[in-house]
Amino acid sequence: MKQEPANWRSNMNILFLGDIVGSVGRESVKEHLPQLKERYNIDLVVANAENSAHGKGITRKIYHQLLAMGVDVCTMGNHTFSKNDIYQFIEEADRMVRPANMEPLEYGQHTVVVKVNGMRVAISNLCGEVWMNNVVDSPFFCMEDILNDIDADVYLVDLHAETTSEKIAFTYHFAGRVQAVVGTHTHVQTADERLVYGTAAITDLGMCGAYTSVLGRDVNEILTRFTTEEKTKFKIAGGPGILCGAVVQIDEATRKAVHIERIQIRPVDVEC
Hints:
The chain has 6 helices and 14 strands. Helix content is about 25%, strand content about 30%. The protein has helices at about 20-40, 60-70, 85-90, 140-150, 165-175, 220-230, and strands spanning about 10-15, 20, 45-50, 75, 95, 110-115, 120-125, 155-160, 180-185, 195, 200, 205-210, 240-250, 255-265. By secondary structure, it is of the alpha/beta class. The protein is globular, with a radius of gyration of 18 Å.
């Protein structure tokens, strides 16, 4: 489907942010989000926050920090329950969704419905099955259930998955039935953003984290693992951050996605 030039002063504009990794990622969001919201006339901000606390999981404090920065909904992933603190606040975190098909299933919500420009927008979180732990059902089956059970005008999906093929196949299966499928988890932004029968899609949004890093982790520690087979702690990298994501525009009259644009803000004058 051919994209037309976007008029960011009309229709519904949604900003998706890739995996926020540690304090560097949070600072990148804090620094750049206000300008992005203004530039694209953003109506809704959805950010993947499963790595926001020291690179693994989320805490109550960080959840509220992200909301205060301007994030409207936090999506999660395979590290949802990595911090014990999550069990103390997940039931009251009404702007956070966890994967619908990942154990433990009894905590939190997999979909939240918010009002945007008078329309009911459902944001759902799913995990891929391939090479992922604790996944107990197919994301395809779970999404069918969500579409049957949740009444909304617009459906947005964060598919937290390892493989490109699974995310692309999911997009084709639900093309025209959901307005956006954005992939997360790999921390590397893909250049395949496109419209598929009224559905905006990108295989992976990328990450918000340290620019000089290996997926947000300290370069030297990762090199030590690969070159000596010595186990290291996956320390989070420091330094200037990169912010990655995508903006999706939805035509409110037709309820179809009409534009998707990748966002990548790199630090200037950084050697790596």
